[in-house]
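User: My instructor asked us to take a sequence, write out its structure as tokens, and then describe one feature of it. I'm not sure where to start. Here is the sequence I was given:
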Amino acid sequence: MTELGVLAYPDLSPMDKIKEYLQLASKYGFTRVSSSMLSVEGTNEEIISYFKEFNHIAHEFGMKVSLDVNTNFLKRMNQSYDDISLFHEIDCDIIRLDGSYGAENDYIMIQNSYGIKIEMNATSSKVAKEIAYFYEKGVSQEQILLGHNAYPQRYTGLKWKDFLEKNHQLKSYGYKIAAIVSSNAPNTHGIWNAEDGLPTVERLRDLPIDLQTRIILATGEVDDILIGNAYATEAELKAISEVVKPAKAFEDSPIYDEIKAYGPILPKFGPCKRLKVILEKEITKIEKENLLDFVPQLDNGDSSEWIWRSRSGRLINKNRPIPPRKYREEYFPVGSIVVVNDVNKHYSGEIQIVKIPIKNDGKRNLIARLAPNEEQMLELINNEDLVEFIEYYEY
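Assistant: Let's start with the prediction itself. The structure tokens for your sequence are:
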């Protein structure tokens, strides 16, 4: 299950504002907050006092706390890989280790008797070797987390290709991976004057926050999502929470009986991926039901390069007319959502997403188009994926 989290910056915002943010985030199902012990100035006692209060507030709202440290900071606090008792005393749930003592000593830290999880830097060039070592030593999936960095400077975030390759390599060991998305709210803050957002992947920096989340989760190899900069708006928090909510219950679908008659086919299908669409003004009630209400929209694994197709709608379309409409355009462009009409009665009701422009031969009605930037999701919709279409709205 995807866990959602936020980052908080005690050096840049007062505690009362952080508390308000955590309370709001928890309202929308966020269960984790990350912060940095490195950023708080003061004596050791003052830092300890601050994070005792911080952790207590987070726990009040049902949120786990991850604290960013490095080896120099641990030495300052008289802590090391074989003694992290201070973090137990301040009720910390996760230590994010920025840096390493080496695989053997990190392993000792991971085996701590307090049940404190250790989060490793997923972006590090050395992490794969360490994770392989921990895996061979039998470290359970409950003891380690992997978390990507965020990049405040525009044009410096990870390459999409490198992000995919790194996650694919790490995910083979089974440990949870978190990536960071960026709020588009005005006047946010974050590490090192983060005025241009704070994402892991550069190409996602300015996209709507829910689309960033859907793209990352659609890769199938990232488990958790954190918001890098603060403060995300309530609308953004709500939008992300809707991305990770369970898919509509199959049993509630109008086509449940028809699909069930084909036998137990659903277990072979992949996760549900959500696409936002802008409906055409001419869409009929039947066409809208076929698009938005039928669950699941699924491809049987044999779609062509030109279209992704869902046969679900045609299962009950025998007595549901979809008359053809005339269009001036000779081709349907990429991102068009079409439904097969009654000119091709055998396939009438079938929903299709255009991936390469197709000729308008009069057998399909244009009913919607992908919302802005949603085309990036097309490359992540694979054979046998389930798709849920969501009507686009701005937040």
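For the description part of your assignment, you could build on this observation: The chain has two domains: 4-243, 250-391. Try explaining in your own words what that tells you about the chain.
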